[in-house]
Amino acid sequence: MAEFRTLDDLEANGRTVIARVDLNVPVEDGNISDFTRIDRILPTLNELSQKGAKVLLLSHFGRPKGKVVPDMSLRPIADGLAAHLKRPVTFIDDCIGDSVTNALARAEAGDILLAENVRFHAGEEKNDAAFAKALAAAGDIYVNDAFSCSHRAHASTEAIAHILPAYAGRNMEAELTALAQALEKPARPVMAIVGGAKISSKLDLLFNLIEKVDVLLIGGGMANTFLNARGVNVGASLCEHDLAETASQILEKAEKVGCEILLPDHVVLAKEFKAGAANRAAPVGEVAADEMILDVAPQSVAAITSRLAGIKTLIWNGPLGAFEIDPFGDGTFAVAREVERLTKAGSLISVAGGGDTVSALARAGVTDSLTYISTAGGAFLEWMEGKTLPGVAALAR
User: Fold this and answer.
1) What percent of the chain is modeled with pLDDT above 90?
2) Which of 171, 178, 301, 356 makes the best surface tag, with the fewest CB within 10 Å?
3) What is the per-residue pLDDT for 297?
């Protein structure tokens, strides 16, 4: 990973700092329902303010596609942000032009201002140079604290970083440090857990990981496709039968590069996909034609936790079963609790990310115990796939 400047290198007093953050938070009935992304940026905002900067926040919200969509205004987000900052946040009804210039002229050192949705302008998603220049005109320094948006080459994440002196905020710094620790210079052996419904959405991820990790555990619906490729009858389970050859290629490549592949050998089966459905645990070779694999069974959990005992670094993306429906999250939750125990004991570095993964770990009650949990979603996945993230690359010294 290239070196990047952090807030440690930044002299902010008396200057205007444009900070790209991710305030694309879930809202229900007009109220923010999850403050995780806001909580993650508070250290950067407080530090810049305490250093005497005027802080102008840029963010997107929803997908207005270059047009003003009142329901996608950031105005309601300003109140929730202010409540968590425990200080006023001035909202500006545009992100470029006179309204921004005038608001900053009235602001004092330490003030925090939030500009309107950058995606109300078509130039944002086009990474338009003129729009980036208009954004940059308001500030002296650029700080990117939105790793979750940095897989997109947009004006507020990429082009602007080439116009103003660019720095990583504390949230961005934490993400990059954790990710480097997990894959670039990890303590070995390294294990990856990859789960979820389909391998078709994670082919790049799987092909990249088998080159980087020592052990790859495949779970969830995607494990069925690999079991099928090995000649196992998976009954009525979710399975991409047309990708059997691709799954075989992944298994063959893993063997060539010395990556051990783990698949569940005992599973939880049910004939109905609903909460509380009658179910049974069985070896993978005993799946009936009308049964679905919905979780890993206790025997597989025991095998996984035994394997984890010798692992130094773990990367986790995707659940091991249909965790949203009881009791088919038991396997995922049991493995999560063992990861928590090993992390607390200091024997395991654990990094996890992806929407379903974060939800599953929250259900297991372990989100405060792992080494690092990324809230980045798509950016986390693309990083795991080995892709260059434009917003991160633009911060390189």
Assistant:
1) 89
2) 356
3) 98
Residues 233 and 379 in one domain: yes
List, by residue number, the catalytic residues: 37, 198, 355, 378
In a domain, 394, yes or no: no
**Omega of the bond leading into 189 within 30 degrees of 0 (cis):** yes
Full residue range of the structural domain in which residue 108 is found: 7-173
What are the tokens at 340? 């928590």
Claim to verify: residue 216 and residue 86 sit in the same structural domain? no
Considering the domain architecture, whether residues 143 and 200 belong to the same structural domain is answered as no
- Spatial separation of the C-alpha atoms in residues 87 and 49, rounded to whole Å: 11
Which residue has 């994440």 as its token pair?
Answer: 157
Residues 213 and 71 both lie in one domain: no
pLDDT tens for residues 102-113? 999 999 999 999
pLDDT at 375: 83
- DSSP one-letter string for 38-71: HHHHHHHHHHHHHTT-EEEEE---S--TTS--GG
pLDDT in tens, 93-134: 999 999 999 999 999 999 999 999 999 999 999 999 999 999
**Judgement on whether residues 147 and 215 belong to the same structural domain of the protein:** no
